[in-house]
User: Which sequence fits this backbone?
């Protein structure tokens, strides 16, 4: 029963984030005088609906996102309220509104999380036995400011770089100590678990004033976006395997595991368990929302990024691609994405079965 409830929570959370993405398209469409045929919350069969002016508002059975169907979005419609009849910049604003709303949502959740928990300052707390970082000269209390020249603002960034750079290649850490900056170069060591590690434990939660809550909320978004970028980079270059990809099923499964871990860490304290679950869900929401924002900006046909690229080309060269050709490109892109989603779906199911 607990697993079912966790899955429902995951579906609702995931659905809300996708819904918020579609809300961005909806609001900018209305702002630019574009007719919206239907704005749906959820997918599948309609449970209930009503029509106001030209728009049908519906609540659908499956709590997984929603959609915003605009007049003239996929075909040329000669109407002043048609998407196809609006200026290139108006259409671009509508297309980009979805990913931008994902980043806005991630920022709002970051404000809540940082405001409650503070941010994890990249302070070195301890070392493992035979730590290569300690042998190189890194000391307790040092604040790590850069990893191989990449600026870092929280300890989790260092963990991401460590996970993605699994080799014995030299690492250069830049640390701040007593107002001075020092560089230490060393090779990570292979641990018993088969991972290359620096032998550092760290991260100190600190709370700041309102301005710093805003600052570190923006840096939290930066961390999430950078994590997605690095993951994509390593997937493309082959440093990360395809098996590391996860779709909605995999994400909901991870949410279920996260909720169970949050409950277990409370040690039977119901109030603490609820707080842990809420905080973990906020953190997961930041991750998913930032991921959707970045992924939708990729210049792939059928995604917002692909449509935005075609609109930018139209705006620069003052020449519009025919709706038929644009629809064909988007259809091909959509089919490829569906194929990828099916493969990832079966991979996620297989992971759950063998877990």
Assistant:
């Amino acid at each position: 029963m607990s697993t079912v409830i966790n899955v429902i929570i995951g579906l609702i959370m995931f659905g809300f984030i996708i819904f918020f993405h579609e809300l961005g398209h909806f609001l900018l469409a209305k702002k630019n005088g574009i007719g919206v045929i239907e704005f749906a919350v959820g997918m599948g069969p309609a449970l209930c609906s009503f029509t106001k002016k030209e728009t049908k508002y519906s609540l659908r059975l499956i709590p997984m996102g929603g959609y915003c169907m605009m007049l003239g979005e996929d075909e040329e419609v000669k109407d002043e309220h048609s998407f196809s009849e609006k200026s290139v910049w108006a259409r671009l604003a509508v297309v980009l509104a979805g990913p931008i709303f994902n980043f806005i949502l991630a920022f709002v959740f970051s404000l809540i999380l940082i405001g409650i928990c503070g941010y994890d300052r990249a302070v070195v707390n301890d070392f493992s036995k035979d730590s290569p970082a300690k042998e190189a000269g890194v000391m307790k209390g040092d604040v790590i400011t850069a990893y191989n020249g990449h600026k870092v603002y929280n300890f989790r960034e260092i963990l991401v770089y460590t996970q993605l750079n699994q080799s014995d290649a030299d690492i250069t850490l830049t640390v701040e100590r007593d107002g001075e900056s020092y560089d230490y170069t060393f090779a990570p060591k292979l641990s018993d678990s088969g991972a290359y590690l620096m032998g550092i434990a760290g991260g100190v939660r600190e709370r700041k004033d309102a301005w710093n809550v805003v600052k570190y909320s923006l840096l939290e978004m930066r961390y999430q976006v950078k994590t997605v970028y690095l993951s994509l980079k390593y997937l493309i270059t082959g440093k990360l395997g395809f098996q590391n990809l996860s779709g909605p099923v995999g994400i909901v499964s991870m949410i279920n595991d996260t909720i169970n871990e949050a409950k277990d860490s409370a040690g039977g304290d119901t109030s603490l368990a609820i707080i842990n679950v809420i905080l973990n869900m906020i953190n997961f929401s930041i991750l998913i929302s930032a991921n959707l924002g970045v992924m939708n900006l990729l210049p792939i046909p059928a995604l917002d990024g692909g449509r935005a690229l075609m609109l930018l080309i139209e705006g620069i060269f003052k020449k519009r691609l025919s709706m038929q050709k644009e629809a064909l490109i988007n259809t091909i892109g959509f089919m490829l994405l569906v194929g990828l989603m099916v493969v990832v779906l079966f991979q996620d199911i297989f992971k759950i079965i063998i877990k």
Summary: The two ends are 19 Å apart (CA to CA). DSSP finds nine helices and ten strands in the chain. Residues 119-206 form a domain with the Pdz3 Domain fold (CATH 2.30.42.10).
